[in-house]
Amino acid sequence: MFLELFKILKKPRGFIVATLSFLVIFAGSVLLPSIGLISRIIGSNATFSEKTQVVWSLVGSIQTNFTTLSAITTVVTALLFGIIFAIIVSKVVEQKELLQKNGITTGTLGLVSGVFGIGCAACGSLLISTLGLGGILTMLPFRGQEFGILGVLLLFYSLYLLLKKNKDMQVCEVNN
Amino acid sequence: MNKNTLEKISLPISIVVAGAFIALAVIFTNGTGSKTSDPIAQNQPSLENVSKITKKDNVLGDPKAPITIVEYSDYECPFCKRFHDTMNQVMDKYGESGEVAWVYRHFPLDTLHPVKARAEAVVSECVAEIGGNDAFWQFSNRFFELTPSNNQTDLDVVIPQIIGELGLSQSEIDSCVESGRYDKEINDQITEAQQTGGRGTPWSIIILPDGTKYPINGAQPYEAIESLIELGLK
Questions:
Q1: CA proximity to A107, closest of A78, A69, A127
Q2: Cβ contact, residue pair A37, B215, below 8 Å
Q3: CB contact, 8 Å: A148 with chain B?
Q4: Domain residues for B173?
């Protein structure tokens, strides 16, 4: 099962897709709380290098604006998403088989759950409090970071389903 | 719809759903997303709702400094504790030279840190009233040093300890707290934090010499604050 994964990531296309997806999801998660600042900086009359410097400096918030648990779940979510996306792209391009619905759906749920977990960053989960559900955080032992953990688990399950499907023999199904 | 069709469309649907959620997250978290000509009149959160510095404010540095950082903070928030250190670092570099003023306003999150965060905010205001501006900052620095955060502070131990260290009278502080004279001011600051777009703590606004305002959401690293200050000083 993992040999197949290794084969996909060993190819330049698989490696590049996985790396780029990881970077996009990671940067998106870390920079999401600062989207208001970033949009204002981009629209300002600062030079390109000044704008880049400000945005780049915000990436450091993974150390200051996240708990250890939320930083770990953010990195793992981005990593798993990158791997899953590389597998999906590989299968689409090679057209080896039809994509497995369950794997993709679980992956999507994992990503969505991870998004809800983002922002345990500052006090008050970003998306949850935005939706006016801040009160539910007080009932959760990890103050909303459960969503990030759930996301990671779903992504792991999605990866398992995709790799398992890949391992199964290709047969024509009986159409009932 | 047969199984094959379902399987074929599941990929694009899943991608669209994921994209929609991410887009929603971006839209919901972008305070500047919907621009209106008069945000105050239309009750939209806007950085323009930040009030001017008055004598009531707790200010570190020169109040007439070209750059002002207004922070809305919660004494029980672990990220505020972290950001307090960052701001002290900022003031070490830019405070002495009179380039930056740091304004501390209260934004106790009652749902996350019931009773304690608000009580600590009131005590800090009483410390400022009785001991002056310097005492307020000494109180805040020492409190963030001692608090374990997340509503775990033992108020009966930590507060008297700091009050004693500052050489202030506990009974005077108690009587100030009981008078309730800072309750409205703290409520007003909470409302202002929300009206400027704050949805969590720490929430800060950096105001540049030309009046440009930038939102700082959460405990952003020193380098980010420094690069924004340098942008304003150029």
A1: A78
A2: yes
A3: no
A4: 34-218
